[in-house]
Every structure is written in C-alpha cells, then in structure tokens.
TrEMBL record:
Gene Ontology CC annotation, any one: membrane
Residue spans crossing the bilayer: 65-84, 96-117, 174-194, 237-253
The protein, known as: Uncharacterized protein
UniProt membrane topology term: Multi-pass membrane protein
Length: 306
C-alpha cells in the first residue's frame, strides 16, 4: 500500500513529493499496520494528501504564499454579497416556496464582480492597493465564505416568527439580534473545535464542499489544453448569461402568469372537492403525484441535487 501522508519538510510549503507521483487509487486499509500507527492528529499530518482521487484533484495540499487573499476586492465583494443574500433570503423566506441564493449563484456572482472590479478599479487609491491584478482564487474563495456566513439565518427568523404568530409572544428586536448572533457564534465555535478531526485529516471527504471547490478551481483554471481539445465552443460567461435569460423568462410563468405550474396535480383538478385527494396529492398536502415545473419548488425545502 502506498502511504499518502507526505509531510512538508521546508518552510516554503513545498510538498516532499509531487501530487502526480502519488497513487491516488489507494484506499486506506483499516487493518494496515501503517494506517494504524499513523495518529489522527499531529504536527506534521495536517497537510497530507487525500487518498481519494476526486478530493486530491480539486483540493490540493500545497499553497502558493505569493497569491493574495485578504484584499480590498475580496472584502468589498464579501460584504456586498452578505447584504444581497441576507436581504433576498429574508424577503422570500416566508413564501409558499422559499427562494434563496444558493452557493452556486454566489460563486458566479462573486467571480463576475471580481473580474469587473479587476478591469475598472485603479491599482492604487489613497496610497492603498485596491486592485492587485488578477482576481485570484483565494480572493474568490474568501468572498464566497463571507457571503455564505449568513446562510441558515432563515431558520432562526422562522423560530421568532412562529413565536409571534402562533404563541403571541413578541420578542424585542435587540433580543432577537442577540439570539441570532449567539447561535451563529455557537455554530462557528463548534466548527472551529471539530475542524482538526473532520476537516484537516486527508481521509476526510465532504461531497457538498467538494462541488464548491471544483467550481471555483474551474473558473480560475488557466490551463487551456483541455479547452482546445473540447468540442464545446461556447464560453462560460455566454452559457451563464443564456441560462440566466432563459430562467428569467421562464419564471414569469410559474411565478406570476400561471402559478399552478409550481405544483400541478391532475387528481386535484379532477376532484377539487375531495378532501382526501387534496391532502394526498395537493400542493399543501403530501404532493404525491404532483408535477412541478418550477425549479425553486424542487430545491426550496431540500438541497440542490446538482
């Protein structure tokens, strides 16, 4: 078995062995003596290469310290998207089919804003560097992390709304803000405590986060070899804008023109006065057999299947 726990032996964060030379198809064997003697935590195994090929390709274990991360652009984009996502999620949280900006939209918006600022911002403003070209993957990742920090607040708002609507208990605005901040800090503290056990070891795998890493790396990939060999001639930006235009035009039908398309039940139309059929197949019931032509109806209460 090939040992994938390669240590960083120098100070410039260079791996002792390149990723290409590692056998990525090796799966850790719980009965292996080498695996058994390797501690879960230690001062040298936090940067180990993942034994899973999908993780190793999309999440490298080396770092380029020359790439900037905390810049004016990343902070500006992060704060801007925090307000956009928080306001959008809150305004549409109490709809029949809640609308939310998921991480895929945040990744694309932050990338487009970053590239736009890269072109229009001056290099320096008031003796401060505001545009260190180009827009790096670290800046992009930091902006996405900042924007997604407000994700999940809808559940806390719903708890406050339920107390007001159903229990006639009015929580003061200051107490509500403290309630939300407390839960956010509690969640962040738990994440900070468990990251050494659930994030840093190379054997850990997070499928949903893996998709995020893959999309971000794809947008910043400068290798044109695969693009030249592909039959796909449309650029990512053109494809994104075409899909955005199509989604904008289509949403007028289930959203305003013909809302029945959001959850279409043939059984309820055949027997509209049947209470049992309404509870089983209706939009406000179990929705068994109902057809949904609105993407938001699929992902409102469940995670995106993409």
């Amino acid at each position: 078995m090939t040992n994938n726990n390669y240590e960083y032996k120098n100070l410039d964060h260079t791996p002792s062995q390149p990723i290409e030379s590692i056998n990525l198809h090796s799966i850790p064997d719980n009965n292996s003596e080498t695996h058994a003697n390797t501690p879960l935590l230690g001062p040298t195994n936090d940067n180990q290469q993942s034994p899973y090929e999908e993780v190793a390709i999309n999440v490298p274990n080396h770092d380029d310290p020359t790439v900037l991360c905390l810049t004016f652009r990343s902070v500006f984009i992060g704060i801007l998207l925090i307000f956009v996502k928080a306001i959008t999620d809150q305004l549409f949280a109490l709809r029949t089919l809640p609308l939310s900006l998921d991480i895929g939209i945040i990744i694309l918006l932050s990338f487009m804003i970053g590239k736009f600022l890269e072109k229009i911002l001056p290099e320096k403003l008031f003796n401060m560097t505001v545009n260190p070209k180009p827009f790096s993957v670290k800046e992009h990742t930091l902006a996405v992390i900042m924007a997604m920090s407000v994700d999940g607040n809808n559940s806390l708002i719903q708890a406050i709304a339920v107390q007001r609507v159903y229990y006639n208990y009015y929580l003061h605005h200051f107490n509500a803000i403290i309630f939300m901040i407390t839960f956010q800090l509690f969640a962040l503290s738990i994440a900070g405590i468990l990251k050494r056990y659930l994030v840093w070891p190379g054997a850990m795998i997070w499928p949903k986060t893996l998709m995020t890493c893959c999309v971000i790396r794809t947008l910043h990939n400068e290798d044109e070899t695969e693009l030249n060999q592909s039959r796909w001639t449309m650029s990512r930006f053109k494809f994104f804008w075409l899909m955005l235009l199509f989604q904008f035009l289509w949403y007028w039908f289930p959203g305003y023109i013909f809302p029945l398309l959001a959850s279409f039940s043939f059984v309820c139309m055949i027997a509209p006065n049947n209470l049992i059929f309404s509870q089983i197949t209706g939009a406000n019931g179990l929705s068994i057999g109902a057809l949904q032509f609105d993407w938001n109806a699929w992902v409102s209460f469940l995670d995106s299947p993409i």
